[in-house]
Amino acid sequence: MIGFWLKKNLCDLWDNMLAVVIPNACLLVLALACTFMFSAVGMIPQNAGLQNIYSYAALYVACAMFCTAVFAAGETAAKISRFESPSFTTFFAELRPCLKDGLLFALVVWLVISVATVTLPCYFLMWKDHGSFAGLILAMFVFWCVLVSVLSLQWFVPVRSLMHSSVAGCIKKSYVLFFDNAGFSLVMALNTVALCAISVVSLGTFPGVSGIAVTHTNALRLRMYKYDWLEVNPDLTKEERRDVPWDDLLATDKKTLGPRKWRSFLFPWKNEK
Q1: What percent helix, strand, coil does the chain show, rounded to 5?
Q2: Ordered DSSP codes for 124-138
Q3: pTM attached to this predicted model
C-alpha cells in the first residue's frame, strides 16, 4: 500500500502542478504578512507581560489565517486525490467556507504550540537547574503529549476535506487514526519531512504545504479502503484483520492511475498505454 501511495503522490503532484503551486504562492505571501505582523508586535513599547499577550494574540491570528488557507488547499487536495482535475480557482472559492473551521482549529494549534514553547522549557529547567525529578517527569509527559498530538493532527486536514465532520469530530477521528495506524502515521511524518526539505530548495513553491496536503489526503483515502473491508467482514479474527488484501482493495485505483513510466513525466506524449 505504501508503494502505491508514494507513486500516486508523485503522479498527482506532477499532473496538478498548477493547482498545487498557486495555493503555495498564496501561503508564502501569508507567511510574509505574518512575519511583518510579528515584527510590528515586537516593536510595540510595552512591558514584558503585555508583550507576551500581544505576541500570543498575534500567534493566534497567524494560526487562524494559515489554518483557513490550508483547509482551502485541503479541499483542492481532496479533488486531486479522487482523480478529479481542480481549477486553480478552487482554492480561492474554498477560503470563505473554511473560515469558521480555520478559526476553531487555530485554537487547537495555538494551544499545542503554547504548551510546547512554554511548559516544556519550564519543566526542563526545573530539572536542569534545580535537579527536580518531578520536572523531568512532567517534561517527558508534555513532550510525548505534544508529539502524539502532532502525529495525530496531521490527519486532520484530510479527515476534514474527505468527511466534512465538525472540528471536534475531526480531532477525535484524527487521534483514532493515529492510534490505529501508528506505524503508518510515522511514515507519513517522515514523508512530510522529506517534502519539507524539497520545498526549502524550491522556496516553498513545490510541493509545499499544498503538496503535503495532497499526500496526506491520499494516505487517508487509500487507508479508508481497509476500514470498508473490515466493515463488510466483521467476523474476521485478529490475525485475519492484520492480513489486509491491499492488492484487491487498490485494484480500481491502480487501474485508474494506470502504468506510469519515468519518461512520461517529462514527455507525456510518449506515454505508452
Answers
A1: 80, 0, 20
A2: HHHHHHH--HHHHHH
A3: 0.94
